[in-house]
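Figure 6 in text form: structure in, sequence out.
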């Protein structure tokens, strides 16, 4: 079931935020190994957490999760220590099903040699790591089981799944579902058995 009020809250938060350029979030992205064309990240100077330090506000890096049409479905907030820049906690506002966070825009594939191939994993940090390792745009999901009903963007014909963080029985089920939607599928270790050039 879609919670339109929760999506609306995510949209308001996104619209009230700004570019990460020259902010503590910019430093955080560099620590994660994010390339310059990292997609859909903004900065909010004062976010109030839902899961710790109630009543206090912290700077946060906001990662926009979208459907394959590009509609914003939710925002993952990474709360940052204003003195050290370290992550204090994370939370998510919005709808989780059918939502990806992509490491780059598919209409701006510069620096990604494997055009048409997308890697899929759980977690933003892992998505950035895989994107740098494989040279592919990577999609992060919140919950791996949600992939059963998902599809990939129109530009994609091959989907590679992260066999390091998806349990084998579930992975086989998800790969079968994607093959049924006419995608070429493989695991990360199968597809990239030799180290790919890192993304600049």
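Output sequence:
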């Amino acid at each position: 079931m879609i919670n339109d009020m929760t999506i609306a809250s995510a949209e308001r938060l996104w619209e009230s935020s700004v570019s990460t350029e020259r902010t503590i979030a910019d430093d955080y992205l560099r620590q994660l190994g994010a390339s310059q064309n990292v997609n859909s990240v903004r900065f909010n100077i004062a976010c109030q957490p839902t899961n710790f330090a109630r009543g206090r506000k912290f700077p946060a890096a906001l990662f926009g999760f979208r459907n394959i049409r590009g509609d914003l479905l939710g925002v993952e907030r990474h709360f940052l220590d204003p003195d050290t820049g370290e992550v204090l906690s994370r939370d998510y506002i919005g709808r989780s099903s059918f939502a990806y966070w992509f490491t780059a825009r598919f209409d701006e594939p510069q620096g990604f040699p494997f055009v048409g191939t997308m890697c899929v994993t759980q977690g933003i940090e892992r998505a950035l790591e895989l994107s740098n390792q494989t040279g592919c745009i990577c999609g992060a999901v919140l919950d791996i089981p949600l992939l059963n009903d998902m599809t990939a963007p129109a530009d994609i014909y091959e989907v590679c799944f992260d066999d390091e963080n998806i349990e084998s029985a579930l992975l086989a089920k998800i790969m079968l579902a994607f093959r049924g939607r006419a995608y070429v599928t493989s695991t990360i270790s199968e597809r990239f058995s030799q180290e790919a050039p890192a993304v600049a």
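Caption detail: Residues 4-15 form the longest helix (12 residues).
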